[in-house]
Amino acid sequence: MSETTQTLTPLSTQAERLIELGVHEIAGLSAAEVRAASALGESDGLLAVRPDVAPASALAPLLRRQGKPGFVVTDMSDVDLFAPLDSIDLPDTPLYLISGVDRGDDMANWSPDEALPALTAASRTPLLLTEGIHWVLQQPDVLERNHCFMTIGSRLRKPKGTLDARTPALWISNGTGRDGRERREAPKVGWCWAGNRHTWLGFASGEGRRGQKPWGKPRPA
Predict the structure, then answer these.
(1) Which of 40, 113, 128, 158 has CB 3.0 to 4.6 Å from 153, enough for a Cys bridge?
(2) DSSP states of 94-141 as a string?
Protein backbone atom coordinates (compact mmCIF):
# COMPACT_ATOMS: atom_id res chain seq x y z
CA MET A 1 0.00 0.00 0.00
CA SER A 2 1.12 3.54 -0.66
CA GLU A 3 2.07 5.93 2.10
CA THR A 4 -0.25 8.67 3.27
CA THR A 5 0.55 12.20 2.12
CA GLN A 6 1.36 13.44 5.60
CA THR A 7 1.50 12.06 9.12
CA LEU A 8 -1.74 12.62 10.98
CA THR A 9 -1.73 15.03 13.89
CA PRO A 10 -2.04 13.72 17.48
CA LEU A 11 -5.50 12.65 18.58
CA SER A 12 -5.72 15.54 21.02
CA THR A 13 -5.20 17.95 18.11
CA GLN A 14 -7.74 16.08 16.00
CA ALA A 15 -10.26 16.30 18.84
CA GLU A 16 -9.84 20.07 19.05
CA ARG A 17 -10.30 20.33 15.30
CA LEU A 18 -13.62 18.48 15.48
CA ILE A 19 -14.77 20.76 18.29
CA GLU A 20 -13.69 23.86 16.35
CA LEU A 21 -15.78 22.70 13.39
CA GLY A 22 -18.81 21.88 15.54
CA VAL A 23 -18.81 18.17 14.70
CA HIS A 24 -19.53 17.35 18.33
CA GLU A 25 -22.74 19.41 18.15
CA ILE A 26 -23.82 17.60 14.96
CA ALA A 27 -23.27 14.29 16.76
CA GLY A 28 -24.92 15.37 20.02
CA LEU A 29 -21.67 15.01 21.96
CA SER A 30 -20.04 17.31 24.46
CA ALA A 31 -16.61 18.83 23.87
CA ALA A 32 -15.40 16.83 26.88
CA GLU A 33 -16.51 13.56 25.26
CA VAL A 34 -14.58 14.38 22.12
CA ARG A 35 -11.47 15.38 24.07
CA ALA A 36 -11.65 12.12 26.04
CA ALA A 37 -11.25 10.20 22.78
CA SER A 38 -7.57 11.20 22.69
CA ALA A 39 -7.06 8.41 25.24
CA LEU A 40 -7.32 5.97 22.34
CA GLY A 41 -3.67 6.82 21.90
CA GLU A 42 -2.22 5.68 18.56
CA SER A 43 -0.20 8.42 16.87
CA ASP A 44 -1.07 7.26 13.35
CA GLY A 45 -4.81 6.91 13.90
CA LEU A 46 -7.71 8.91 12.52
CA LEU A 47 -10.45 9.97 14.92
CA ALA A 48 -13.95 9.60 13.48
CA VAL A 49 -17.58 9.87 14.54
CA ARG A 50 -20.05 7.18 13.55
CA PRO A 51 -22.05 8.03 10.41
CA ASP A 52 -25.36 7.38 12.16
CA VAL A 53 -24.73 10.38 14.43
CA ALA A 54 -22.68 12.60 12.08
CA PRO A 55 -23.84 11.89 8.50
CA ALA A 56 -21.99 12.78 5.33
CA SER A 57 -24.50 15.46 4.34
CA ALA A 58 -23.72 17.38 7.54
CA LEU A 59 -19.94 16.87 7.37
CA ALA A 60 -19.31 17.66 3.70
CA PRO A 61 -20.02 21.43 3.99
CA LEU A 62 -17.33 21.67 6.69
CA LEU A 63 -14.63 20.75 4.18
CA ARG A 64 -12.57 23.63 2.83
CA ARG A 65 -10.13 24.06 -0.05
CA GLN A 66 -8.87 27.44 -1.19
CA GLY A 67 -11.57 28.99 0.98
CA LYS A 68 -14.40 27.11 -0.73
CA PRO A 69 -16.73 24.78 1.20
CA GLY A 70 -17.23 21.16 0.33
CA PHE A 71 -20.44 19.88 -1.22
CA VAL A 72 -22.30 16.75 -2.27
CA VAL A 73 -23.12 16.34 -5.96
CA THR A 74 -26.74 17.04 -6.88
CA ASP A 75 -27.43 13.47 -8.06
CA MET A 76 -26.46 12.02 -4.68
CA SER A 77 -29.28 13.43 -2.56
CA ASP A 78 -29.47 9.99 -0.90
CA VAL A 79 -25.86 10.23 0.32
CA ASP A 80 -26.78 9.47 3.95
CA LEU A 81 -28.32 6.15 2.92
CA PHE A 82 -24.88 4.84 1.92
CA ALA A 83 -24.15 2.53 4.86
CA PRO A 84 -21.19 0.35 5.87
CA LEU A 85 -20.77 -2.89 3.95
CA ASP A 86 -21.93 -5.99 5.81
CA SER A 87 -18.28 -7.00 6.18
CA ILE A 88 -17.49 -3.84 8.18
CA ASP A 89 -18.17 -4.01 11.91
CA LEU A 90 -18.15 -0.50 13.36
CA PRO A 91 -17.30 -0.08 17.05
CA ASP A 92 -20.42 0.47 19.15
CA THR A 93 -19.15 3.86 20.29
CA PRO A 94 -19.87 7.38 19.05
CA LEU A 95 -16.15 8.07 18.54
CA TYR A 96 -13.64 5.55 17.30
CA LEU A 97 -10.16 5.25 15.83
CA ILE A 98 -9.11 4.01 12.38
CA SER A 99 -5.49 2.89 12.32
CA GLY A 100 -3.08 2.88 9.40
CA VAL A 101 -5.09 5.01 6.97
CA ASP A 102 -3.81 4.97 3.41
CA ARG A 103 -4.98 6.80 0.28
CA GLY A 104 -4.43 3.79 -1.95
CA ASP A 105 -2.56 5.54 -4.74
CA ASP A 106 -1.12 2.21 -5.87
CA MET A 107 -4.65 1.09 -6.78
CA ALA A 108 -5.39 4.03 -9.06
CA ASN A 109 -7.02 2.86 -12.31
CA TRP A 110 -8.61 -0.10 -10.55
CA SER A 111 -12.39 -0.40 -10.43
CA PRO A 112 -14.17 -0.65 -7.07
CA ASP A 113 -15.21 -4.18 -7.99
CA GLU A 114 -11.53 -5.07 -8.41
CA ALA A 115 -10.27 -3.10 -5.41
CA LEU A 116 -12.53 -4.49 -2.69
CA PRO A 117 -11.37 -8.14 -2.86
CA ALA A 118 -7.75 -6.98 -3.14
CA LEU A 119 -8.07 -4.86 0.01
CA THR A 120 -9.72 -7.75 1.83
CA ALA A 121 -6.95 -10.13 0.76
CA ALA A 122 -4.39 -7.65 2.12
CA SER A 123 -6.25 -7.51 5.47
CA ARG A 124 -7.22 -3.90 4.84
CA THR A 125 -10.64 -2.37 5.43
CA PRO A 126 -12.04 0.20 2.96
CA LEU A 127 -12.85 3.57 4.47
CA LEU A 128 -16.44 4.73 4.84
CA LEU A 129 -17.43 7.96 3.14
CA THR A 130 -17.71 9.73 6.50
CA GLU A 131 -14.26 8.45 7.48
CA GLY A 132 -12.84 9.87 4.26
CA ILE A 133 -14.46 13.21 5.05
CA HIS A 134 -12.99 13.13 8.56
CA TRP A 135 -9.57 12.51 7.02
CA VAL A 136 -9.83 15.55 4.75
CA LEU A 137 -11.17 17.66 7.62
CA GLN A 138 -8.02 16.84 9.57
CA GLN A 139 -5.59 16.78 6.63
CA PRO A 140 -6.92 18.87 3.71
CA ASP A 141 -3.82 18.24 1.60
CA VAL A 142 -4.69 14.56 1.34
CA LEU A 143 -6.92 15.64 -1.56
CA GLU A 144 -4.55 16.50 -4.42
CA ARG A 145 -5.13 17.05 -8.09
CA ASN A 146 -4.80 13.65 -9.79
CA HIS A 147 -4.50 11.94 -6.38
CA CYS A 148 -7.95 11.73 -4.81
CA PHE A 149 -9.70 8.66 -3.41
CA MET A 150 -12.75 6.45 -3.24
CA THR A 151 -14.46 5.31 -0.04
CA ILE A 152 -15.98 2.00 -1.05
CA GLY A 153 -16.73 0.89 2.52
CA SER A 154 -20.02 2.79 2.13
CA ARG A 155 -22.62 1.41 -0.27
CA LEU A 156 -26.32 1.87 -0.85
CA ARG A 157 -28.38 -1.30 -0.66
CA LYS A 158 -31.51 -1.48 -2.80
CA PRO A 159 -34.86 -2.70 -1.38
CA LYS A 160 -34.30 -6.17 -2.89
CA GLY A 161 -30.89 -6.44 -1.23
CA THR A 162 -28.57 -5.81 -4.17
CA LEU A 163 -25.99 -3.02 -4.05
CA ASP A 164 -26.52 0.21 -5.94
CA ALA A 165 -23.81 0.52 -8.60
CA ARG A 166 -22.68 3.93 -7.32
CA THR A 167 -19.57 4.01 -5.13
CA PRO A 168 -18.73 7.21 -3.19
CA ALA A 169 -15.54 9.19 -3.58
CA LEU A 170 -13.88 12.46 -2.58
CA TRP A 171 -12.20 14.66 -5.15
CA ILE A 172 -11.72 18.28 -6.28
CA SER A 173 -14.35 19.99 -8.39
CA ASN A 174 -13.39 21.39 -11.80
CA GLY A 175 -16.32 23.79 -11.62
CA THR A 176 -17.97 22.28 -14.68
CA GLY A 177 -21.54 21.14 -15.34
CA ARG A 178 -23.93 21.17 -12.42
CA ASP A 179 -21.12 21.90 -9.94
CA GLY A 180 -21.01 25.53 -11.13
CA ARG A 181 -17.94 27.64 -11.83
CA GLU A 182 -18.07 29.11 -8.34
CA ARG A 183 -17.24 25.66 -6.97
CA ARG A 184 -14.03 25.16 -8.93
CA GLU A 185 -11.34 23.80 -6.56
CA ALA A 186 -13.91 22.96 -3.85
CA PRO A 187 -13.81 19.55 -2.13
CA LYS A 188 -16.49 17.35 -3.66
CA VAL A 189 -18.38 14.26 -2.51
CA GLY A 190 -19.39 12.35 -5.59
CA TRP A 191 -19.66 8.84 -6.94
CA CYS A 192 -18.38 6.52 -9.66
CA TRP A 193 -19.75 3.29 -11.09
CA ALA A 194 -18.53 0.15 -9.33
CA GLY A 195 -17.17 -1.31 -12.57
CA ASN A 196 -15.36 1.79 -13.85
CA ARG A 197 -11.68 2.74 -13.52
CA HIS A 198 -10.20 6.19 -12.96
CA THR A 199 -6.50 6.98 -13.11
CA TRP A 200 -6.83 9.77 -10.53
CA LEU A 201 -8.73 7.87 -7.84
CA GLY A 202 -7.10 5.56 -5.32
CA PHE A 203 -8.94 3.49 -2.70
CA ALA A 204 -8.67 4.73 0.86
CA SER A 205 -8.37 2.04 3.51
CA GLY A 206 -7.25 1.37 7.05
CA GLU A 207 -5.84 -1.45 9.14
CA GLY A 208 -8.77 -1.59 11.55
CA ARG A 209 -11.15 0.25 13.86
CA ARG A 210 -11.25 0.47 17.63
CA GLY A 211 -13.84 2.08 19.88
CA GLN A 212 -13.35 4.17 22.96
CA LYS A 213 -15.96 2.93 25.42
CA PRO A 214 -19.51 1.55 25.52
CA TRP A 215 -22.06 3.88 24.00
CA GLY A 216 -23.60 4.71 27.37
CA LYS A 217 -26.72 6.42 26.03
CA PRO A 218 -29.64 5.58 23.72
CA ARG A 219 -28.58 4.84 20.17
CA PRO A 220 -30.13 6.79 17.28
CA ALA A 221 -33.23 5.18 15.80
Answers:
(1) 128
(2) SEEEEES-B--GGGTT--HHHHHHHHHHTT-EEPPHHHHHHHHHH-GG
